[in-house]
TrEMBL record:
Pfam families, alphabetized: BPD_transp_1
Bilayer disposition of the protein: Multi-pass membrane protein
Name of this protein: ABC transporter permease subunit
Record GO biological process: choline transport; glycine betaine transport
Major subcellular location class: membrane
Length: 513
């Protein structure tokens, strides 16, 4: 090939490169909508290097969080807003704030006491009382305190320029940082927009106004509150009306009174079912000779988790027996077993039903979030109202707290079954029952077993709390240790609870996967 000959492949590659570059420029114009030529140059510069490439965007630095928010970069806007707010607050405090306000309030309070002591001293001097020396020392001490606080107030007032300069330095630094990262952050969002056109682009006027109002409101409120503390009550105290709280309390109490009166049959039926399971497990664990229960637990641990864990289980059981915790440990296991069994019997079918019904699962998710996040002492209140105190109420409380993981992880496991495997089974003629029992559940079993494990562990965490409403067992010993500061009893009983948890954990999550 001579020098004048042209390789057609090179022309093809150059045409493709030019077409790609032109398409990229058009996409950038569509995305940014303002100053497209500037952003084309900046994006090309940023994209040419794999590392961070500092650029300078004057608008990002000048308008700061407003620019980032208007561009949809809220993950950058909010941190910058916090830092800028801090800077503006420091500037306002240093220039206009009453830095000695708190000290002057303390002086005014002490001066009231000082005036009283002076009158008492004057009366003691007139009466030639033996308390003259006491009042004299008190007055001198208060006067010295006022002098010290006044000097502190003067020192604080003198720090105003330093505080303002510190805020100004923070503001300048954050403005420089915003200028340097603005283009990089926008280029990253542009890359997201290329793959997902639902990502907001451009800088609509409505978003500029919204962002500006939000930022200005936050900054002004913070500046006024910290610069003039106590002057604007609306900023320091939420406006409330006591009547709203009292009316809400009446409504809640009325609802629970109505539920208790009209749901007695339902609550009695639930209590009866819990009693059936609880009494059966107490007969098994408590009434059966200890050597039988210990042997069965050790054998079950050996079959599921191996010889080593079986030896550990034997040692744990010996610890509980030798220290006199055997009966209470078995009572705890019966209570825990009742709550866990009922949670599992309800949770796994519920998870199987919800796994293929997204709307149903979306509807019960807030309920499960409530069950897991609401403090136990709060939902114990309606449980006691409906079921009274005692073991059934403790079982219900434990189920509320520990019953959700098995549902969530059952749904997660079943949704994680590969669709290709299910389609293959269906193509070979599998019906719904065969698909569920031979495909879905075996493949989801690790996740379901993890849910069972978590339910058991969370149920054990409620042992001490449940003892507050009449549940017996190891939690009662821990509660007594807390009440009477009996450190030894509490620690030993706590280790027994720990060993029960370890035994159950190894049995459920044993070596056989």
């Amino acid at each position: 090939m001579t020098e004048t000959e042209v390789n057609p492949l090179d022309d093809t590659h150059s045409d493709a490169a030019r077409a790609y570059a032109e398409e990229r420029r058009e996409n950038i114009r569509t995305f940014v909508r303002t100053s497209p030529d500037y952003y084309i140059r900046m994006f090309d510069k940023i994209g040419a290097s794999a590392s961070f490439t500092p650029t300078f965007n004057a608008m990002a630095g000048l308008f700061g969080p407003v620019w980032f928010g208007a561009r949809g970069l809220w993950n950058w806007a909010l941190p910058f807003l916090i830092i800028e707010t801090l800077a503006f607050v420091q500037i306002a405090r240093g220039l206009f704030g009453d830095l000695a306000a708190e000290a002057m309030t303390r002086i005014a309070s002490i001066e009231g006491t000082l005036e009283l002591r002076r009158r008492q001293l004057a009366a003691a001097l007139e009466e030639n009382s033996d308390k003259v020396d006491v009042y004299t020392r008190t007055v001198e001490s208060l006067e010295a305190s006022i002098g010290g606080i006044r000097a502190e107030a003067e020192a604080l007032a003198a720090e105003g320029p330093t505080i303002a300069l510190t805020g100004l330095a923070i503001l300048v630094l954050v403005k420089i940082a915003q200028s340097m990262v603005g283009n990089t952050a926008l280029e990253s969002r542009f890359s997201e927009w290329l793959s997902d056109r639902t990502v907001r682009s451009g800088m609509p006027v409505s978003h500029i106004v919204l962002s500006a109002i939000f930022m200005v409101l936050i900054v002004v409120a913070a500046m006024m509150h910290y610069s003039f503390p106590g002057r604007f009550t609306l900023l320091s105290e939420f406006p409330t009306e006591p009547g709203i709280r009292l009316t809400s309390i009446e409504w809640v109490e009325g609802f629970f009174n109505w539920a208790v009166l009209n749901g007695e049959a339902l609550f009695d039926a639930i209590t009866y079912c819990i009693r059936l399971v609880l009494d059966a497990l107490e007969i098994v664990f408590v009434s059966t000779p200890w050597i039988v229960i210990a042997s069965l637990i050790i054998l079950l641990t050996w079959l599921t988790a191996g010889v080593r864990m079986a030896i550990y289980s034997g040692a744990f059981l010996a610890y509980m027996g030798l220290l006199g915790f055997w009966d209470k440990a078995m009572t705890t296991l019966a209570l825990l077993g009742t709550a866990a069994c009922l949670s599992i019997l309800i949770g796994i079918p519920l998870g199987m039903f919800a796994a293929r019904r997204p709307r149903f699962y979306a509807a019960i998710q807030p309920i499960m979030d409530f069950m897991q996040t609401m403090p136990a002492f709060v939902f114990m209140i309606p449980v006691i109202a409906f079921f009274g105190t005692g073991k059934p109420a403790a079982v219900v409380t434990t189920m509320i707290f520990g019953g959700t993981p098995v549902v969530r992880l059952t749904v997660l496991g079943l949704r994680g079954v590969p669709e290709s495997v299910r389609e293959a089974a269906i193509s070979f003629g599998a019906n719904k029952w065969y698909l569920l029992t031979k495909v879905d559940l075996p493949l989801a079993s690790p996740s379901i077993r993890a849910g069972i494990n978590q339910t058991i562990m969370l149920s054990l965490a409620m042992v001490v709390v449940a003892s507050l409403i009449g549940a017996k067992g190891l939690g009662e010993d821990v509660l007594e240790a807390l009440q009477y500061a009996n450190v030894g009893q509490g620690i030993l009983a706590g280790f027994s609870i720990l060993f029960c948890a370890m035994i159950l954990d190894r049995i459920v999550q044993g070596g056989r996967r």
